[in-house]
Amino acid sequence: MIDVVLAAPRGFCAGVRRAIDAVRDALAVHGAPIFVRRAIVHNLEVVRDLEADGAIFVEELDEVPPGGVVIFSAHGIAPAIAREARARGLVAYDAVCPLVSKVHREVERHQRDGRSIVMIGHAGHPEIAGTIGHVRAGTAFVVNSAAELADLPIPADAPAAYAIQTTFAVDEAESIVAALRARFANLIGPSSSDICYATTNRQTAVRALAAQVDAVIVAGESFSSNAARLAEVAAAACGSVQLIANADQIDWGKLSGASSIGITAAASTPECAVQAIVSALGRRYRLRVSEYEAMRETTVFKRLAIAS
Ligand code: SF4
């Protein structure tokens, strides 16, 4: 008998639900095809489901025909992208998560106040590209470790500010902020962390769960920032952690000898992926399935208005 313990909360957050609903609502109001710039959320199963319903995913706006309807992803965009959509005569909806928009407003305020901005996050991630696109080129610097602060071209006595990618690892962010405080005398940051409630809650839950089980499975895509962070947090407390996008990818060798398995899912992973993993485990072992609830989530965002 193997104990399977499901982390709670896990899976879809309010921002991901809102973005997926926006595509479905646009399909209902405008009809297919609806173009989506970049992956609406970082999950291939979600993308394939929406494609089956008539969504077409594109990398750039020049792939959308004139007059086409386009939706921007939950990760947010630089204002230049919205301007390009207007210039091309597209009908555009921005499904950016409200918690990412909040960070956009923060960095804009820091720039107005004449501060250099340190963006704690992963360079190249769409959220970071969108956020630093809200300030003048060359005024925001991306770092993802305290070691990278040494290369910052900002004098120690200059007015500085920091912002954090919403899906960054909570513990790592704390250590980078501590290093920033040690370096800059005039530093400000968000009143509460930019790391969103969903990231914080899922990391808190998996940290506690990983300490209680022999192996952890994180359901999510390897290119999803919040999935990768969940796997890192779990690995700090458990010696056998695997990040898999679906049940076909289970590494059975990593489960050998385990009498308890914890499962969590990234904020962009649908619950059906978790249930498919449990079913696959059930075909091989006798299971006792329970849930470890670290906290209850009630956050819901208002649906994006889609006009006819
Ligand atoms: S992970 Fe956080 S910031 Fe990203 S969409 Fe979900 S709630 Fe919004």
TrEMBL record:
InterPro entries: LytB/IspH. GO terms for biological process: dimethylallyl diphosphate biosynthetic process; isopentenyl diphosphate biosynthetic process, methylerythritol 4-phosphate pathway; terpenoid biosynthetic process. Gene3D superfamilies: 3.40.50.11270, 4-hydroxy-3-methylbut-2-enyl diphosphate reductase, catalytic domain. It comes from uncultured Sphingomonas sp. The keyword Protein transport does not apply. It catalyses: isopentenyl diphosphate + 2 oxidized [2Fe-2S]-[ferredoxin] + H2O = (2E)-4-hydroxy-3-methylbut-2-enyl diphosphate + 2 reduced [2Fe-2S]-[ferredoxin] + 2 H(+); dimethylallyl diphosphate + 2 oxidized [2Fe-2S]-[ferredoxin] + H2O = (2E)-4-hydroxy-3-methylbut-2-enyl diphosphate + 2 reduced [2Fe-2S]-[ferredoxin] + 2 H(+). [4Fe-4S] cluster binds at residues 13, 97, 196. Its EC number is 1.17.7.4. (2E)-4-hydroxy-3-methylbut-2-enyl diphosphate binds at residues 42, 75, 125, 166, 224-226, 268. This is 4-hydroxy-3-methylbut-2-enyl diphosphate reductase. Pfam families: LYTB. Pathway: Isoprenoid biosynthesis; dimethylallyl diphosphate biosynthesis; dimethylallyl diphosphate from (2E)-4-hydroxy-3-methylbutenyl diphosphate: step 1/1; Isoprenoid biosynthesis; isopentenyl diphosphate biosynthesis via DXP pathway; isopentenyl diphosphate from 1-deoxy-D-xylulose 5-phosphate: step 6/6. It is an enzyme of class 1 (oxidoreductase). CDD domains: lytB_ispH (cd13944). Its cofactor is [4Fe-4S] cluster. Binds 1 [4Fe-4S] cluster per subunit. The active site is at 127 (proton donor). One of its GO terms (molecular function) is 4-hydroxy-3-methylbut-2-enyl diphosphate reductase activity. Belongs to the IspH family. The keyword Transmembrane helix does not apply. Isopentenyl diphosphate binds at residues 42, 75, 125, 224-226, 268. Keywords: 4Fe-4S, Iron, Iron-sulfur, Isoprene biosynthesis, Metal-binding, Oxidoreductase.
